[in-house]
Write a structure and sequence with these properties.
The complex is a heterodimer of chains A (about 110) and B (about 160). By secondary structure, chain A is of the alpha+beta class. Chain A has a single domain (about 1-105), classed as Hypothetical protein apc22750. Chain B (Translation Initiation Factor IF3, 2-Layer Sandwich). Chain A contains two helices and five strands, in the order ββαβαββ. In chain A, a hairpin with a 2-residue loop joins strand 4 (about 75-90) and strand 5 (about 90-105). Chain B is an alpha+beta fold and about 160 residues long. Chain B is about 45% helix and about 25% strand. In chain B, strands 1-3-2 form a three-stranded antiparallel sheet. The termini of chain B are far apart. The chains are: A alpha+beta (about 110), B alpha+beta (about 160). The interface of A and B includes residues 8, 47, 58 and 86 of A. Chain A: Belongs to the UPF0145 family. Chain A: This is UPF0145 protein IMCC3135_32465.
Chain lengths: ~110, ~160
């Protein structure tokens, strides 16, 4: 499965647009990470725990999107966008969406 | 009276610690950023939506993210600036660090794939907050262009981007 945030790919022709596909994942951090983070907050700098958490979450959302695309018979997802929103204290939603397409096989 | 003194004392200690460690960390980070940016200069990151057609490429979405928290001193300073308004420089440098770091992480991912460009870069900034912790996440993502053939199909536009 080809994933890109470009609208078209050089040298490839889109045979069919299959519609919007999306994936989302809501995650919250656990207390241990919170304590470590609040300590770190005095000194500033990267909060590695959160970086990892969010990138894991993003991976999962992307996987869900790809699964949906696969079930539609797509072989690529184009024009992919990410969006993040903080839903409640301690929980963030990662949303990813794109257009499922069928690319011509070379 | 006593507890108030202790509270004020703790605040002052935190401010000093935040100032010293925060400044040190920031200085080190900026130094590293400059080094890494120089080392990855051969892979341009482009905000254009239109990919090059000079040769055949494979495409792959790459991303990099980082969560950076402000230190105690920065937060305090920002609070002061807030009273009069104006440029909140302590947070500007924090976001600059986060953004450059996320781009570099994205670039590292692209370089690992053998890419020569990253196209259509997008940024996403969001506030991560719980209780006293205030931090920003910056995500950078784009499409890594991985050449499949050495030979340029149209050499006249090969290095125009």
């Amino acid at each position: 499965m080809l994933v890109s945030n470009l609208e078209f790919l050089p040298g490839r022709t889109v045979e069919r647009h299959l519609g919007l596909v999306q994936g989302s994942s809501v995650r919250s951090k656990h207390v241990g990470r919170d304590i470590a983070a609040s300590l770190k907050n005095f000194f500033g700098g990267e909060l590695r725990g959160y970086t990892e958490l969010l990138s894991d979450s993003r991976e999962e959302a992307t996987e869900r999107m790809l699964k949906q695309a696969e079930s539609m018979g797509a072989n690529a997802v184009l024009n992919v966008r990410y969006s993040t929103s903080s839903i409640a204290a301690g929980a963030a939603e990662i949303f990813v969406y794109g257009t499922a397409v069928e690319l011509q096989v070379e | 009276m006593n507890s108030l003194m202790i509270q004020a004392g703790v605040a002052v200690v935190l401010l000093v610690l935040g100032y010293l460690f925060g400044r040190l960390a920031e200085k080190r980070h900026f130094k590293k950023l400059i080094e890494r940016e120089a080392a990855t200069q051969h892979v341009p990151v482009v905000a254009t939506r239109y990919p090059p057609e000079d040769r055949a490429y494979d495409q792959q979405l790459v991303s990099g993210n980082v969560v950076i928290a402000s230190d105690y001193f920065k937060a305090f300073l920002a609070g002061l600036i807030n009273i009069f308004g104006g440029r909140v420089t302590p947070f500007e440098s924090m976001l600059d660090r986060a953004r450059r770091e996320s781009v570099l992480r994205m670039k590292d991912a692209a370089i690992a794939l053998g890419a020569t460009y990253v196209f259509n870069i997008k940024f996403e900034t969001s506030r991560i907050a719980t209780g006293k912790v205030a931090a920003m996440e910056v995500l950078a993502y784009g499409t890594a262009m991985i050449p499949t053939s050495e030979e340029a199909v149209r050499p006249e536009i090969a290095h125009e981007v």
